[in-house]
Amino acid sequence: MLGGTFDPVHIGHLRSAIELRDALVLDRVHMVPARMPPHRATPGVDAEQRAIMLALGIADTPGLYVDDREIRREGPSYSTATLASLREELGPHARLVMALGYDAYLHLADWHEPQRLFELAHVVVVDRPDHRQPLPMALETLIAGRDVASVDALMQSPAGGLLHLSLPTRMAISATAIRERLQRGASVRYLLPEAVERYLLARRLYQ
Ligand code: ATP
């Protein structure tokens, strides 16, 4: 599960999803757009449009899927609820992984029911070149004893582990920087898939 606002989806998200799929030998990567992210301002572009852009970005990429369960659900988009519904579908023995970038990981202890995240899934943290900071105390406490050293060790159990991954291609691309570029009329070519660029320019999104 790779959740996010995807406001808009960019090459950093998509390339990371593929490299996660390969590094962890995943059957599927569920990319889950948040309808109402609990810890940040509600995006200016509605969830349906963000999901359309995500689908355009993924196109026919094997193993990557738009999962719209947070859009269909009422209330704040809590990851525990999303993981619980995936767990119910996949059963107690499936290995379930929640992947997130280092910037999002830094705030994990402030999420809704953070301990429960680890009961439902493993957490895999992806390095981002533009983010490096020491961990807050509450996060140190949350992750105590959960670190595992390898993918093999992680995949011995269905949930509960923490693994840091440095994926082969690290990209300093953020949706914030893309929105800023669009607002001042600068080019976003090659920062996101061409179909996504065409979609958002045609609708004057973020301008
Ligand atoms: P924003 O700039 O609006 O915060 P973002 O680019 O960080 O957006 P999100 O939709 O918030 O994108 O990110 C969804 C998930 O993807 C988060 O876990 C985030 O850390 C991760 N992510 C985003 N960009 C990258 C990137 N370039 N490389 C690796 N992971 C990324």
Automatic annotation (TrEMBL):
EC numbers on record: 2.7.7.18
GO BP: NAD+ biosynthetic process
Enzyme type, top EC level: transferase
Molecular function terms, GO-annotated: ATP binding; nicotinate-nucleotide adenylyltransferase activity
Domain Cytidyltransferase-like stretches: 1-181
Pathway(s) the chain acts in: Cofactor biosynthesis; NAD(+) biosynthesis; deamido-NAD(+) from nicotinate D-ribonucleotide: step 1/1
Keyword field: ATP-binding, NAD, Nucleotide-binding, Nucleotidyltransferase, Pyridine nucleotide biosynthesis, Transferase
Domain of life per record: Bacteria
Pfam families noted in UniProt: CTP_transf_like
Reaction(s) catalysed (UniProt annotation): nicotinate beta-D-ribonucleotide + ATP + H(+) = deamido-NAD(+) + diphosphate
NCBIfam families linked: nicotinate (nicotinamide) nucleotide adenylyltransferase (TIGR00482), PRK00071.1-1 (NF000839)
Family, as annotated: Belongs to the NadD family.
Function: Catalyzes the reversible adenylation of nicotinate mononucleotide (NaMN) to nicotinic acid adenine dinucleotide (NaAD).
Protein name, as recorded: Probable nicotinate-nucleotide adenylyltransferase
Species for this entry: Chromohalobacter marismortui
